[in-house]
Write a structure and sequence with these properties.
2-enoyl-CoA Hydratase, Chain A, domain 1; about 725 residues; five-stranded antiparallel beta sheet; Pdz3 Domain; about 15% strand; alpha+beta; 3 domains; seven-stranded mixed beta sheet
Length: about 725
Amino acid sequence: MSKKFLPVLLVLTIASLFVAFQTQGRGGDNPKTKNEKILRNVGLLLEQGHYSPKNINDSFSKLVLKRFVKDLDEDKSIFLQTDIDSFGKYDNRIDDEIHGAKLESFYTITESYSRRVEQSSKYFTEILSKPFDFTKQEDILLDGDKMQYPKNEAEKREVWRKRLKYLVLVKYADLLDDRENGKNKKQVVSAADSLGTVGTLTKKFVYKADTTLEREARDLVRKQIGRYFTTLKAHNTNDELFSSFVNAITGEMDPHSNYFAPVDSRGFNEMMSGKFYGIGAQLKEEESKIKVASLITGMPAWKSGELGVNDEVIKIGQGNAEPVDVTGYAVSDAVKLIRGSEAGTEVRLTVRKPDGSIKVVILKRGEIKLEDTFAKSAIINGTHKIGYIYLPEFYMDFEKPNGAKCSEDVAKEIVKLKAENVEGIIMDLRGNGGGSLPEVVKMAGLFIEDGPICQVRGRDESQPYLWKDKDKSILYSGPLTVMVDEGSASASEIFAAAIQDYHRGLIIGSSSYGKGTVQRTIPLNPEAENPALAKPAEDLGTVKLTLQKFYRINGGATQLKGVTPDILVPDRYEFFKSREKDNAAALSWDEINKADYKPWVSNYSSAEIINLANTQINTSTTFNTMKEKVKWIDKMNDKESSLNLVKYSEEQKELKAAYKQLDSLYKLPKLISVTNNSKDTLGLSTDKEKLEKNKQYIKRLESDIYIDETVKVMNNMINQSNVAVNAAAAASKRN
């Protein structure tokens, strides 16, 4: 921990002693007093320790209020406009509460929220008791940011009518599709006889009328919404709502400063310990739906290749048991169904893909194995032999001095590739969310002689700390490209930026995430025990606080802007708006003085290669079609949705066709030739599990259009480099 931060902990300690004496004898242990203590300590940490704190004033208070209300009611179906108007009295009050005034805003808002939730929960049973008319020309706006709060109960009921009608329409359309698809298909189900022998039975297709399917759709939605409100009310506890309130405050400082209540902190630690079995999919709640937020490299969900980011989880089943419909569930409850106590047990996820199609993904739970996240290489055979290294994260075993380090593992892969006489190397950092900063520095040092890699500056520090590679040796000096995308963040951006600033290689892909900040977890209770009290200090939770900022050696921050590739390739996920720049509370971009470094001198023309690649991409039918489809999908997602069955079905058909075309564009008509290096091939010969993993790994590389584009760039780099080497050799002979 930085010495400059120690005074903040001292302030927390003194403040805790002061409040402890203040509250003795007047209910100092009650929840309200604890919440006020948490709020005050969070305010102290933000003001005294945050890298770039916003002034906690009336303007900040207004932003926090807006964020908290939005977090509670994102789709504007709970509060009335009169509620929002009444909350206006706290526009200039929350900052005072953070600074020690009596906490009132939280209790007033959450009391109103709980009351409105109870009122809203009474609509759905009556609305869903009658059939919907899907021949009417009606539309629904699903983007909460574009909606207005209902003015009265009648308007709110209409909001719920349309929302419920839309949910039933989606279910109804799915059931109609299932009926159409099942007309001429035999449905095979497993059955067991009296001896326990498992066999199969053919289930005859049963045709159901439209009215029956519409009723079944309403029944499904009735159960879904009933469960939704049951879950909502169960989680409307003081602790959970207060955590949301505090996170509205920390989140308004920047997206990466977070508050963890004691129970959340413990759960986080349990998760990090790895003492449970799961599928490695992190879930999120979005528009009252459970969606896949990210996949953990090496875990079953990632290995399957069938589950994707932003897939909506509809049902979760255990083996062959009847799946549980989780629409309306809280994320935490859905996670409980996915987790298991044994490796190898089966979990079945029914998901709705972004194109609207339904898919059942069958996965077996597993415990994460570190080797699945380690660096691995391959050889791409074609015009030239090119080495490929995939690094999913910048890992380092902090508990074991001799444990795994990504810089050492990448060095080993480079040695293997050099033994195969590769003519160029591709470093793939797509989806790499970061990791150890020291490892970034060491890894960059494998490709340059020596010098600064990045600059790190803390709050009120006039001079940044310079992270340097001090090893003059170069492990690899040939042509180099680095692949990045919107998932490449933090440490990945530092590496890519250093390679770009040194002109050591070319960066290719889509713009990176843009996280250029450093966080550290700080406990809100200063010490395990408070000597001034007769009992141990209560656990107030922790705050993950932004303390520093990264800067490139050219002086620019990686924050917000990320790293812009030398060669930009269209990004199919652009419309998800998931980068740092898409968060209004993100810290700004700035720059400091440039570090002293000596750029690499290559034997090829970077400008010429970049211009050629950009021309090829800009004139590519595949990439231009891809850009058009992405823009069209973004436009479709940004408009009102129809509540007319015919129109809705037509729109869904168009969307599915667009997604299907996008998928086809990403499949190369001719696969890339990819093989293992000789040493890795020997290690795979007797291990069935490794053989299967390797088969999946190679299969992914063979059809990757981005790798194919990178190989084209590498070929041009190698061609120019070879011409320069041959010319130099000829000149040497003449002399």
